[in-house]
Amino acid sequence: xxxxxxxxxxxxxxxxxxxxxxxxxxxxxxxxxxxxxxxxxxxxxxxxxxxxxxxxxxxxxxxxxxxxxxxxxxxxxxxxxxxxxxxxxxxxxxxxxxxxxxxxxxxxxxxxxxxxxxxxxxxxxxxxxxxxxxxxxxxxxxxxxxxxxxxxxxxxxxxxxxxxxxxxxxxxxxxxxxxxxxxxxxxxxxxxxxxxxxxxxxxxxxxxxxxxxxxxxxxxxxxxxxxxxxxxxxxxxxxxxxxxxxxxxxxxxxxxxxxxxxxxxxxxxxxxxxxxxxxxxxxxxxxxxxxxxxxx
Length: 296
Fold this sequence. Notes:
Number of domains: 1
Helix content: over 70%
Strand content: under 5%
Oligomer: single chain
């Protein structure tokens, strides 16, 4: 859905309209979302600014621009490096612990991503390198958004987080268009594509995501997205005329195997690679809501 628009319009223009359309839909919720944010502290305010400006506007612009420089599959699958960044960010921001064994999953995933990024991994083309760097940068920003979204979910409702993300991201997206000297106007022939992009993978997907994120640790929430590379590759090859070399297929297989193995490990093993802090903010709030039987 994003690729045809990326070919017809500047990346920043696509991101601007994506945010504008979602903000128009969510406009009745904006006053309540900011009232809820006013009850929060500086940490939550900074998180909203980082999610809206970085994870929403800038990351989406980088991801869309990557389609113009590379094949349509590489940005989608490199985006799946997001769990690697998310686990690291979750450790520093949320104090979610990572066991040393996580490297057994992370290193193969990074190696597979390298193979996937380039048709010939020993002969790197500048355009391919730029596309890969843009996709990886977007993945890092989205990983930060996952962790900060988890932080906000302890204080704000999912609809409030979604509303604030797009509302704060809109002026940043407009600033990116202006800085690049792009155009804001689009033709009616792109209206349907922009509307679907804004409402389906934009508003609907993020609303569901923040709903689940409220009760899921950030490092585990990001694992839920790991089935996406297979679908992305099938769509890219089947419908977008993408062609992968043998080493790219190998890289795709390694990435999928690594992240799937990590997800399986977290589900069935008694000692997962990622552990929540036993007395985090969300845990304390749950304890406050649970009546103490000794006091009754």
